[in-house]
Every structure is written in structure tokens, then in C-alpha cells.
């Protein structure tokens, strides 16, 4: 399993036995990075790129779960999900830019994304925290 995130809380709290690929950038950067990995490395999505019912312009952090395969072809379903997510992201960002959030608000967003990631790992079946979970 590969975890792609731009959330420092996920990077710090998720069990170190998991492969965490940290993206320095925005929610959109995470989506574009995952799309490219689906294409280049033939990875499959384990979680939906728009999970959590949070609009892309209403948060900064995103965590997406992928898995490796031995396939020589691109998983078209994963690619379609990523392309659709990027389209939705671009639509929301175009219609309503994000405000300049305070550190406290960003920490709240980090916690929400972390909680969704932790719940996803629980459903998939795996230990989540390397230290004390919230």
C-alpha cells in the first residue's frame, strides 16, 4: 500500500511501516501527482480521490491510498477517477478561491484529513498510528 498525502499530520502519525509519499503542495498537486503515478507506475486506487464529502476548495489537505500491481496496462478506472477528481477540483477552485487560512484552521483541516485516512486504513485493515492516535 502507498499513501500519498500533503498532510503533515498523516506523515507524522501513520505507522512507519506504511509507504508514505509526501507531496509538498496543495490538494490539486496531490491529485495531479497521483494521476501521474497511476499512469507511470500502473498503480490502482484504493480510496476515492474525492472521499470525505469535503469540497476541494474548502480544505487544503488530501490523502489518497494506492496499491501496486503487476499489470502492464494502466488501470482505466483509476485514471478516470483521477481525471474526474481533477476536473471537479479545478471547477471548485475556479468558482471560489480558497481564503488565506490561519494556522489553526489548517491544523483543523489536517486533523479532518488524518481522521479520514485513519478510518480508511481501519476499513482496509492495517495499523494506523506510529504514536498516540487522536
Note the main attributes of this structure.
134 residues; alpha+beta; four-stranded mixed β-sheet; 4 helices; 4 strands; 47% helix; globular
Q: How much helix is in the residues?
A: 40-55%
State the low-pLDDT regions, or none.
Answer: 127-134
Structural class by helix and strand composition: alpha+beta
Estimated radius of gyration: 14 Å
Protein name: GrdX family protein
InterPro entries: GrdX-like
Organism: Enterococcus viikkiensis
Explain what the structure shows.
InterPro entries: GrdX-like (IPR047735). With 134 residues, the protein is α+β, with helices and mostly antiparallel strands. The radius of gyration is 14 Å and the shape is globular. The protein has helices spanning 8-13, 27-41, 76-95, 103-124, and strands at residues 2-5, 19-22, 44-45, 63-67. It contains four helices and four strands; from the N terminus they run E-H-E-H-E-E-H-H. Strands 2-1-4-3 form a four-stranded mixed beta sheet, sandwiched between helices. Helix 2 packs antiparallel against helix 3 (76-95).
Q: What is the structure about, briefly put?
A:
The protein has helices spanning 8-13, 27-41, 76-95, 103-124; strands at 2-5, 19-22, 44-45, 63-67.
Task: Compile the SSE list and pairings.
Blueprint: E1 2-5, H1 8-13, E2 19-22, H2 27-41, E3 44-45, E4 63-67, H3 76-95, H4 103-124
Parallel strand pairs: 1-2
Antiparallel strand pairs: 1-4, 3-4
Protein name: GrdX family protein
InterPro entries: GrdX-like
Amino acid at each position: 500500500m502507498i499513501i500519498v498525502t500533503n498532510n503533515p499530520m498523516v506523515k507524522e502519525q501513520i505507522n512507519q511501516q506504511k509507504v508514505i509519499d509526501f507531496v509538498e503542495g496543495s490538494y490539486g498537486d496531490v491529485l495531479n501527482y497521483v494521476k501521474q503515478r497511476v499512469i507511470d507506475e500502473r498503480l490502482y486506487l484504493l480510496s476515492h480521490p474525492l472521499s470525505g464529502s469535503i469540497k476541494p476548495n474548502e480544505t487544503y489537505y488530501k490523502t489518497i491510498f494506492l496499491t501496486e500491481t503487476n499489470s502492464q496496462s494502466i488501470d482505466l478506472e483509476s485514471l478516470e477517477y483521477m481525471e474526474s477528481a481533477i476536473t471537479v477540483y479545478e471547477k471548485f477552485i475556479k468558482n471560489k478561491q480558497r481564503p488565506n487560512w490561519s494556522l489553526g484552521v489548517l491544523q483543523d483541516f489536517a486533523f479532518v484529513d488524518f481522521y479520514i485516512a485513519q478510518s480508511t486504513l481501519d476499513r482496509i485493515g492495517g495499523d494506523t498510528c506510529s504514536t498516540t492516535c487522536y
